[in-house]
Amino acid sequence: MDDTFLEMADVLAEGGFVPVALGSFVAHHSLMTNVAAGRPDADDLAAVRALAAQVVEKLAHVDGAEAARVAAVPGNRPYRAFGGVAFKPEVNAGACTACGLCARACPTGAITIADAAATDAGLCVSCFRCVAVCPEGARSIGGGAELQAARDAFAQRCAARQESWFSL
Hints:
Layout (H helix, E strand, L loop, with lengths): L3 H11 L7 E3 L17 H19 L4 H4 L21 E2 L9 H5 L23 H5 L5 E2 L3 H14 L7 E3 L1
Antiparallel strand pairs: 1-4, 2-3
InterPro entries: 4Fe4S_Fe-S-bd, 4Fe4S_Fe_S_CS, Fe-S_Ferredoxin
Protein name: 4Fe-4S binding protein
Organism: Enorma phocaeensis
């Protein structure tokens, strides 16, 4: 899980929030589409419900925000540098109807409604939400043989079922 939880907890604390629990739940991968198909499944959703119930119980029995803080958050400071993702969405501008669905779905604003056929590679985090929502198929992952090799290697590393994880 590298330093993600620690960095998120730090950002929340800087904003005045008190992290009381953390969790990592498996979902179908947006780039490595041959991994975790059908997830989250019933077992995953049960884990989410279990965490939610435990958080409610924890908050019902604490006095003050500090007592509710997560005991230990995994990670290291300084955080491991993010090296980026080699794959970015590709656009077939001729197929783009400028409907704006991709721009509205983009969590980082890398696509604008004014120019939906373009992607700001510096803002794009390669979540591929734009690919998933495009009704015209104008956006794709691309990558060809390089993407397939990465998918195969990722699938091999993640062949065993990974379970959700959380901490209070």
